[in-house]
Amino acid sequence: MNILTLFVLIPVLTTLAIGFTKNMKQTRLVSAVGMSIQLILAAILVFMYLGERNAGNTAEMLFTYDALWFPSLNIHYAIGVDGISVAMILLTAIVVFAGIFASWNMDFLSREFFISLILLATGVFGFFISIDLFTMFLFYEVAVIPMYLLIGIWGSGPKEYSAMKLTLMLMGGSALLMVGLLGIYFYSAPSGGQLTWNLLEISKITIPIEMQRFLFPFTFIGFGILGALFPFHTWSPDGHASAPTAVSMLHAGVLMKLGGYGAFRVAIFLMPEAAQEQAWIFLLLTSISVVYGAFGAIWQKDLKYINAYSSVSHCGLVLFAVLMMNQTAFNGAILQMISHGLMTALFFALIGMIYGRTHTRMINEMGGLMKVMPFLGVVYVIAGLASLGLPGLSGFVAEMTIFFGAFQHTDSFHRILTIMAISSIVITAVYILRVVGILLLGPIKDDHYLHLEDAKWHERLSTVTLVIAIAAIGIAPLWLSDMINVSLGPIVDKISITGFQFVSLF
Amino acid sequence: MTGTIPLQYFLIISTLMFFSGIFGFLTRKNLITMLMSIELILNSVNINFVAFNRYLYPDNLHGHFFTLIVIAVAAAEAAVAIAIIINIYRNFRSIEVDKVDEMKF
Amino acid sequence: MTINDFLLMRHEIMLVLIALILLIVDLNLKPTQKPWIIPVAMVLFIIHIIVGFLPAPEGTLFGGMFRSTPLINMMKNVLNIGVFIIMLQSYTWIMKPENREKMSEYFVLMFSTLAGMYFMISSGDFLMFYLGLETATIPMAALAAYTHHQTKSAEAGVKLILSSALSSGILLFGLSLIYGSTGSIYFTDVAASFGAAPMQVLAFLFFFSGMAFKISLVPFHLWTADVYEGSPVNVTSYFSVISKGAASFILILILYKVFFQLIEVWQNVLYIISVLTMVVGNLFALRQKNMKRFLAFSSIAQAGFILLGMMAGSQMGMTSVIYFVLVYIFSNLGAFGVVSAIEAVTGKVEMSDYNGLYRTNPRLSLLMMLAMFSLAGIPPVAGFFGKFFLFTSAASAGYYWLVFIAVLNATVSLYYYLMVVKAMFINKSDEPIAFFRSDNMTRAGLLLSAVGIVVIGFWSQVYEMINNLSVGLF
Amino acid sequence: MTDYTYTLLIPLIPLALFLFTGLTGHKFKPVVSGLIGTTGLFVVTILSYMTAIRYFWTDHVEGMGYTSLKAFETTWIHFSDKLTVNLGVLIDPISVMMLIVVSTVSFMVHIYSLGYMKGEVGFARFFSFLSLFTFSMMGLVLATNIFQMYIFWELVGVSSFLLIGFYYTKPSAVSASKKAFIVTRFADLGFLIGILMLSFMTDTFDFQTLVSPTGPAITQVGGAAFLGLSGITWALILVFMGGAGKSAMFPLHIWLPDAMEGPTPVSALIHAATMVVAGVYLVARLFPVYSLAAPDALHVVAWVGGFSSLFAAIIACTQTDIKRVLAYSTMSQIGYMMLALGVSGYGGHDGLGFMAGNFHLFTHAMFKALLFLGAGAIIHAVHSNDMKDMGGLRKYMPITHITFLIACLTIAGIPFLSGFFSKDEILTAAFHHNMPLFIIEFAVAGLTAFYMFRLYFSIFWGKETHYHHTPHEAPATMTIPLLILAFGSIFAGYLPFHELVTSDGMPFEAHIEYAVAIPSVLIGLLGIAIATIMYRKQTEIPQRLATGFGYFYNWAYHKFYMDEVYLFVTKKIIFNYISRPVAWFDRHIVDGFMNLIARVIERSAYLIKGFQSGRIQQYGFVFVSGTIALVIIFIYLW
To answer: Are the beta carbons of C284 and D609 separated by less than 8 Å?
Structure first.
């Protein structure tokens, strides 16, 4: 039994097990157990992976397993991981684990809730392990659809509207994606021979350039919509605002990462020439969304909206780095995905916990919470510092790597955009401190906040897990970035052998 | 006597019948009349078949067979149609086609 | 006739026999014993299905008027399964007192239309094709008007019979021109001597619009919604699944076998028509409040997707179309099954009646959700695979923009499918449909379709089998 | 060369203290964590002094220059195959000097806080933050490469943020901390970009490589010229921007006065002695690069420093909040240091300014910490920051009085006190290299003496305010540090800096130039005299002067309206004119477009519903016209 298959199998089995549970207690117990196993498994996978690498295994993908599924279309169930996907899997496992505990008291239709939550996770895990474009796409949509029910049933506010909007926009994205993938498939063997969906095999050939010009935008935007690419990001604020805690955590934490990962793994990796030609368009868009999201966040009143916009900004940074197309920037992009996944999940968890106590998310209705709930307050500050890029926390490492990667382009076009992106860290500081100042510090706004109690054990567990992860990456990033770097090697080679130069405006 | 009347005449006639049948189907208000215009269409087809067969492909009889079948089927169709129309009359107390628009949009 | 001949046209013979037997049995039954018809019909039909799966030889009868190949045989098997599910699902409805005494007619009519379709599918020349077509259509009108005391049903009947008469008239005119231009009505001869002369294009277009009427493609679809709404639910599901499926089978067969010279033309025709069909079907479906009407329009939109597969003009296209129809049968029957079960018990067909259904009838709602997702093409249920392969074959012919339009339409369709899910799972209701247990027959039918929806997608052997059979075409 | 690895403990002990008291502080009695912290700092101080003595004397071979050495280094992350970030410990004259400064002051402040913060809520939190700060500052000081410096630079910033906002229920404190963080953050933006450019041009972060006269930064002055300045110059100017932010140079100084919202020990530690001089330290670190590769950047440093010192001194004369006066005087003194570096040359006696700057940094740390702690004691006694509420305190709190006086004399540059020596060196350097700046500084010397004694007199002499409860001398925990620091500020000046801390590590001869020293002393005395006249007794002169200067006085009193300018930029421009439109645009245009699509689809669905009229003949008509349309398209149009 291939270890990677377990990553899909365990969640599925968990959902089945949940189907037989009687009440909320059993349900949450079962799902907690299942996801803890998943987390342990992810940790094991990391060690196995590093072990293999240290043993000198230089294959591009490890633990590969390949089963022919639809022979006539050459569709395989092909799985395998490299450092990047291992990192993403670890991230997912952590966030899901934290999410389960964050929604510990979900008493309304709890069985259905946990089932759909874990289904979503299944899709994400499957997406990260698969190296066959078809299965990748399949898992991608599996991950997207449960969102509708999760938001629509357990959400708050204009939940039907947000859920529908989110689902339709993401499905519109997958519409673009499908065209892109089909195109890639039918040009996966330009010199005759068997067409294939397999990432690695396609990466060995070069898709005809005029085809790339046509397909790249489809693929990139298709993934970009999930990655909150300006101007296709508007599903994210509403969706996050209406979603229940755990769902926002998973969605911003891992689901949006599917976009960045796919854009990198499929769009850039398979169509580097077109990417290099068209990069400047998308660079403009992404650098806009970096600054724009940050500025948008300054004005918001609703905690979730603030965080949603900051997600737009940070995910914009991911795509921005991906488009810079050099090893450092790629590394930064991956690190940024991970760090943003962790800290935004932490944010949403905290927001959910605060909301559960104060029953409002409007920052101007709250104040001085630090005094009544010090634990949550402190953790919130830590999350804030992480997201404004404080050294010692994950955000800093990622952003710095991205900036150093982006700065390697000497033409003024890239320089200007890079400096734009860098300047976002100040704006980030502004809105983070604004929130911290209004929400946590200062005198207590409302007297009946005085008898609110601090975090419960499960809330502490869920948040502390994330905090530890964030700090671990922030303090000792070397192992992670090296793990990613090694896997980036072949990708960068594939991209750099193409003799194109960046098309720049200046 | 073949050749005295060229094929085109038949075709013109049949085409005229065909379109007048369609015209009738689209304009007449009485269900029975509409059925009759359908018959008109079918007969134009029959003329086509027979004429083609007789003039162009005298050595086989596909056209004739087809015509016979069409006539038979037309009869069956008419039977069922009229039965349904009677049923309509029972339900609507009229066989005006415009009355029959309970379900729309 | 030899056993081989029987094997060649076993479906048709069996069906005709079953119909006759049922009539005879019906004659000798007192009104109180009428329900005996059902087991008889069931048993006979099961036998029929089993026989259908016997090894299928390839050959022709009646001097090429009738032909059968493993592929065709398999199409018929697919349809058989669908019909069987429908029979199961219609149990509650048919047992209603007002339908009891004429329940045999229901089966007889259904079987005779089915026989007609089978003749149509395995027709080797246009005469047999036309015969099959009419044999399929005329009883169908009777089925539509089955509950003749209801005005809606009567209206449905008259609308169907008249417009189908018109369409077959036009189709016939096309046939006559084909005959005039080629001198033969045998598919093989026609295919051999058929070019792209204006008259032949004209003939083809007339013929095509006749067929488009059957598959209810825009703008030849207008009868669909009314007939679907007016007819009894199970008849509606029969229309929307079986007759549509059969019609698409025969259309793709004829397009590939007879009009292959015209491929340039009909690919473009299909391009236009499919875009129209998807868009208009979706736009109409958006507004519908009545479940039957809603499903009618959704099935119109689905027909638009089927065309994408046909356009490939290759083995892949053939495979994807058959596979999609199979998937579509299960998905749509799942949906119709739920609708008919609910209508038979409570008589409610409005979408608003489904509010809060999940609280009272979780199983039904889950099946409905599966069916909706499958129709919308959401993984991991079968619909996703069906749609994906259709798009794949369309893309294989280079129609990337068409695929794009299609997927966008799929997104729009997702909207209204989700509206149903929303009604059942999210909306609150003051008086939701009370909990009820339908009888075992219906439940078996629902179960079958549910299994189909879930399994067929992952079970790649199905697709591969179809694919291997479609080889025979070229 | 012997082993200095143990210096790793100097930053690590405070880190351990921070984690320990931070996580478990609330478990046991507050004072415990205070004592733990103080003892920990004691150890650190011992280590620092040991290091200094070993480095400067025991391990030092006579006649040789002081070389920099890496006591420890480890890889933190690889940015690319060329750029690697290390964390390590760098030992060289300035870092050792800073070790002394930081550990001493920090230790003093710890002791002092034991008394000052007694009974405050969050006593443990306070000490853990102090340890955090000490850790970050040590890391900054000992950084082996510029990126490590940036890392700890940020950490220092955040710990200052935490300490300023220590009274987090007080809105003014919160906003002050926010302001401090954001302004410095903005400056750090420049720093970061500077680092990016520098590392891009030189492919290294490492200080030793950067500053070595044969290093890439200096030999190949890379980077395309932009606006007439070379790339390296721009890089260094941007780096200096970061330094200016931390060191509160004009125009990035506005956070410093507000930062006085923090507890007074914090002001003494962070905003007087250690963190604020980080900018000076940064420039000193990169000094060879500045002076050899980018003299233009060095001029910028000099002028910014000079102007800030004047600007601050003028404002200081008008403030009435004693901590703010001290804050501005800090700013002015740092201006001195910057200027000293700015006018310095590289190597030998040219490097006088470099030496003087560091020297002044050292002495200033002593007496300014002393002043702040003294002010703390006074506030502790009077419960007010405003000198209007004070007067005649000398008889109530003698020790404070004496130490404060010493400090004032020191800063006024009275001979034989430490301030005299360092300031004199600076003036000499300026005198030799840049006459206009010398004149400015000369004036500032007078101003300094004036406002310091204005402060002194209006606190300890002047009118006899009667206090509702008689103020009393501070407890021993607070007075002992005062005495120690007073000792430091008297005798620190006798250290042979010109032998220890020089631009190229080589000792050189420095002697007092009377041509500079005497006038500066005189103007200092003059300033004192004026202050004595005006403030020793209650007089009308200040009032009349204020009205006499009129507008100018008001401007100075309102700090030349800098805060208002900043407020305008942030509140008005960013919030109202950028952020709000962006939010609106996002909701109404971008999102509106998405909703528009949906609405269009829905509308069209209603528009076309007429086709389904329910009438058979209309259906037939559509059917036939459809067929005909196809025929037309494919027979005639194709």
So the answer is: yes
DSSP H helical ranges for D165-261: 171-202, 207-211, 216-219, 231-246, 255-258
Q: How far apart are CA A462 and CA A458, in angstroms?
A: 6
Q: Got the DSSP string for A286-311?
A: HHHHHHHHHHHHHH--BHHHHHHHHH
For domain B7-92, the question of CATH label 1.10.340.30 is answered with no
Query: Which of C:206-235 have CB within 8 Å of D?
Result: 206, 208-209, 213, 219-220, 222-223, 225-226
Query: How long is chain C?
Result: 474
Q: How far is CA D109 from the centre of its chain?
A: 18
Report yes or no on A503 lying in a domain: no
Give residue A435's domain range. 3-495
- Using an 8 Å CB-CB cutoff, list chain D residues near B37: none
Question: Does C97 lie at the interface with D, CB-CB under 8 angstroms?
Answer: no
Q: Write out the E strands in D515-630.
A: none
Examine residue A501 and state whether it is found in any structural domain, yes or no.
no
Residue A42: helix, strand or coil by DSSP? helix
Q: Chains touching chain B at 3 or more Cβ pairs under 8 angstroms?
A: C, D
Three-class DSSP category at B102: coil
Instruction: Determine C/B contact with 3+ CB pairs under 8 A as the test.
Output: yes
- Phi/psi of residue A78, nearest 5 degrees: -110, 120
C-alpha to C-alpha distance for A476 and A392, rounded to whole angstroms: 8
CA distance A45 to A39: 10
Q: Which residues of D touch C158 (CB under 8 A)?
A: 616
According to DSSP, residue C412 is labeled H
Restricting to D residues 64-93, those with a Cβ less than 8 Å away from any Cβ of A are 75-80, 83
**Contact residues, chain B, for C183 at CB < 8 Å:** 52, 56-57, 60
Residues of A in contact with C378 (CB under 8 A): 141, 145
**Count of C-beta atoms within a 10 Å radius of residue A476:** 12
Distance, CA of A258 to CA of A92 (rounded, Å): 11
Give me the sign of the Cα torsion angle C66, C70, C72, C75: positive
**D612 interfaces chain B, CB cutoff of 8 Å:** yes
Quick check: C170 and D638 CB within 8 A? no
The torsion angle over the Cα atoms of residues D266, D272, D275 and D276, rounded to 10 degrees, is: 140
ipTM of the complex as predicted: 0.88
Q: Taking chain A (506 residues) in consecutive chunks of 10 residues, what is each chunk's mean pLDDT?
A: 86 90 87 91 91 84 88 89 90 91 85 90 91 91 89 87 90 90 88 85 86 90 89 87 88 89 89 85 89 86 88 90 88 92 91 86 82 87 89 89 86 85 88 86 78 82 90 89 85 65 42
Cα–Cα distance for residue pair C459/A82, rounded to 1 Å: 29
pLDDT tens digits, one per residue of B59-87: 888 899 999 999 999 999 999 999 999 98
Q: How far is CA B68 from CA A361, B49, B74, in A?
A: 80, 10, 10
Query: Count of CB atoms within 10 A of residue A40's CB?
Result: 12
Domain ranges of chain C: 3-473
Residue at A292 is within a domain: yes
CA C294 to chain centre: 16
Residues of D in contact with A301 (CB under 8 A): none
Tokens of C449: 């379709």
> D622, D623, D631, D637: best mutation site toward chain C, by most C Cβ within 10 Å?
D623
As a whole number of angstroms, the distance between CA C292 and CA D616 comes to: 20
- If you measure CA to CA, which chain D residue comes closest to C222? D619
Measured between CB atoms, which of A235, A400, A441 is closest to D168?
A: A441
3-state secondary structure labels for all residues of C81-92: HHHHHHHHHCHH
Do D and B make contact via 3 or more CB pairs under 8 A? The reply is yes
